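Hi F.,

I've been meaning to write this up properly since the lab meeting, where we talked about keeping a consistent format for the predictions we share between groups. The idea is simple: the sequence comes first, exactly as it goes in, then the structure tokens exactly as they come out, then a line or two of notes. No screenshots and no reformatting. I'm using this chain as the first example so we have something concrete to point to.
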Amino acid sequence: MQIVINTQKAVYALLSENLEPAIYDFVPENAALPYITIGDAALAKKPALGKNIYEVDIKLHAYVASKGRKVLLQLGQEIFDLLDSQFLDIENFEHYETLLLDQTADLIESGEKYELTASYRIIIGE
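Output, unedited:
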């Protein structure tokens, strides 16, 4: 649906304009760490008081190479600060709120590569 595409574009624009790591929807084979990917999305419609309210859930993944989780968690905080404090410019829709649903940080390659997975709910209306 167009609402999901427009929301992903707005998230991409905000992150790419304000963060140093590259942002990908599809990661090229030669991508250097660190980088962020925009992952799965889900859409729910919540009609209220004659308005169409939508919840767009988006998963973001961040990857870093380090000897611990500190760098990864700092990047996760930067992502959170942006999404928590700024309204998204979503074409044809109005952004109301962004909520962090959950966040995890995991070692994915023995002592070398860490992944942060953060699920956000973006509430928007027409």
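Notes:
The mean pLDDT is 94.
The first strand starts at residue 22 and ends at 24.

If this format works for you, I'll send the rest the same way.

G.
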